[in-house]
Amino acid sequence: MSTTATDHLASIATAFPKRRMSVLATGKPNLMTNICLGLLFVALTAVIAYFMVPDLIYDYKVSKDPVIDTQSEIHGSCKTRKFIFVDCDVKIRYLATPGDSTIKEIEHSFWFVSFSPSMKTEVLRYRKDPSMITTSMATDHITNRFLMILGFGLIFGALSTSSFLVAWQDYKLRSIVKHKLILKPILVGVTKIENERNVTFETYTGGIKKEHSNFLRKNERPLFLSDQSAVAVAVGVPETNYFILLDEQLTVLDFTDTEKTEIRKAIAA
């Protein structure tokens, strides 16, 4: 940190209120947003399990003792998405048993990952139960399909866990800041601002650099030392490792008009 920045911090600290202050904005998204995201990812995991796992188990069972059926008809198509995801929808017209005269129809959908999928397929029946019928393409990619379902399940599971963890941390933070606190200013280095509201910044504690982020309210801007500087002012929340960026209008904390004037003088000095 430069000497100028250090001097600025000393001036700001001198002008900063020594009283207990109320936090009016934590810099975190709405608590319910993270809870809803967590529930959404749980729902997506459940949808994958509900629609894909039963078909996978069905095809796995047929693959253990398959018999090729040359009399049945296959209709449908496979589409390649994003170069590697193959999505197949097939319709099989078949006789439940060789002596049956009634034609039945079954629809089958499955996904798998392949860089160069073969579109050739045959109808397979389960020897022990000929009423169970599928395609060789579906059984050939059993392991592939299992890994894809597992992968999506782990991704959505991780995202839901992360969302609930962030919601829990947000809840604990809100429990702390609902009381008035003694807050001290700190200078931070803003490294990135995305979508005009999501601010990433760095702090140095004991020579260790840590990255943090704040979600600004609409039309807010961090309180920079100057228009040309990436150094902004934040406050640390006691009993946590969390920092709240001050906004340009000084509305994040319950500053009085006099306190706002003194802080702006300290920054401009």
Keywords:
269 residues; alpha+beta; 5-stranded antiparallel sheet; 3-stranded antiparallel sheet; 37% helix
Write the SSE topology:
Layout: H1 3-15, H2 31-64, E1 66-69, E2 73-81, E3 85-95, E4 103-113, E5 123-126, E6 129-135, H3 136-140, H4 142-177, E7 185-194, E8 198-205, E9 208-215, E10 231-236, E11 243-245, H5 257-268
Antiparallel strand pairs: 1-5, 2-3, 3-4, 5-6, 7-8, 7-10, 8-9, 10-11
Helix pairs in contact: 1-5, 2-4
End-to-end C-alpha gap: 17 Å
Largest sheet: 5 strands, antiparallel
Question: What strand order characterises the main sheet?
Answer: 9-8-7-10-11
Uncertain segments:
none
Number of helices: 5
Write down the overall mean pLDDT: 87
| Secondary structure category | alpha+beta
What sequence of helices (H) and strands (E) makes up the elements?
A: HHEEEEEEHHEEEEEH
Quick one: overall form?
rod-shaped
Q: Helical percent range?
A: 25-40%
Number of strands: 11
Instruction: Please report which band the strand proportion falls in: under 5%, 5-15%, 15-25%, 25-35%, 35-45% or over 45%.
Output: 25-35%
